[in-house]
Q: What sequence folds into this?
């Protein structure tokens, strides 16, 4: 019970420190919305990496990463399951009339938006599965 309370406390402190840090660090102003979004995703990612690194150092957690297993079937499986998850969600919302496609918009600098989305995904995964999963 004591270990569980300590773990919950550390996770709460992690998220409080992360939230305050993200709130205090200003996002630079850019006239280009794609570049602004990119920096709006990079800054929380860097703060997440910083706090994860500091908490892992504080806890002296031994993290093992098998490099040869890094690029395996698990990546392909994760990608396919992610596509399935999103596809089913969109299909269900569309089937019940909650989504309709009425026009097409072109996106300037779509690759920058995609990179920002990628950074956001990394930040969320690191925040949840980085430090917190080392607590279990």
A:
């Amino acid at each position: 019970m004591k270990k569980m309370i300590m773990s919950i406390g550390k996770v709460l402190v992690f998220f409080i420190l992360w939230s305050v840090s993200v709130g205090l660090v200003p996002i630079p102003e850019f006239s280009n919305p794609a570049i602004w979004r990119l920096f709006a995703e990079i800054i929380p990612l860097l703060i997440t990496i910083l706090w994860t690194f500091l908490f892992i150092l504080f806890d002296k957690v031994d993290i093992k990463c098998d490099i040869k297993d890094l690029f395996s079937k698990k990546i392909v499986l994760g990608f396919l399951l992610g596509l399935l998850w999103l596809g089913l969600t969109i299909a269900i919302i569309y089937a019940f009339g909650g989504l309709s496609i009425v026009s097409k918009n072109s996106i300037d600098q779509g690759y920058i938006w995609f990179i920002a989305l990628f950074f956001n995904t990394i930040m969320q995964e690191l925040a949840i599965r980085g430090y917190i999963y080392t607590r279990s």
User: Anything to note?
Assistant: Residues 72 and 114 are 23 Å apart (CA to CA). DSSP finds four helices and no strands in the chain. The first helix runs from residue 2 to 24. The helical segments are 2-24, 33-59, 73-95, 110-134.
